[in-house]
């Protein structure tokens, strides 16, 4: 089971809860900058270019860090279930759109998809 959370504030208590599975925090604030309908390295380059131009850090360093962290969606097929942990705010709704767009194009054939919506 793969859990993809909307950030560290959700990830940390989930990790402590004892819920089984691999856990990943999606920390990119999609409500800032371009979010093109692309994936993989092209997605990373567009996002990092914007984030660096907005003063969030060094472009090369951010690109290296994001590549090292990886995209949890790319490993979805290796899990029997993917659970998205989201809320009703703009950040989470943009994550939901992004994740559903990606999954529609790379649908893991036997992976069940679930969502947990918080307050």
The best one-word shape is globular
Unreliable stretches: none
Helical content stands at 40-55%
The order of strands across the largest sheet is 2-1-3-4
The figure for the number of domains is: 1
What is the terminal separation in angstroms? 23 Å
Overall residue-averaged pLDDT value: 93
Rg of Cα set: 14 Å
Major sheet? 4 strands, parallel
Strand elements, count: 4
Q: How do the SSEs run, as a string of H and E?
A: EHEHHEHE
Count of helical regions: 4
Beta-strand content: 15-25%
Structural class: alpha/beta
Describe this structure in words.
It contains 4 helices and 4 strands; from the N terminus they run βαβααβαβ. 43% of the residues lie in helices and 17% in strands. Helix 2 (40-53) runs antiparallel to helix 3 (59-69). Strand 3, helix 4 (90-105) and strand 4 form a beta-alpha-beta unit. It is of the alpha/beta class. The radius of gyration is 14 Å and the shape is globular. The chain has one domain (2-117). The mean pLDDT is 93. It starts with a strand and ends with a strand. The protein has a 4-stranded parallel beta sheet with strand order 2-1-3-4, sandwiched between helices.
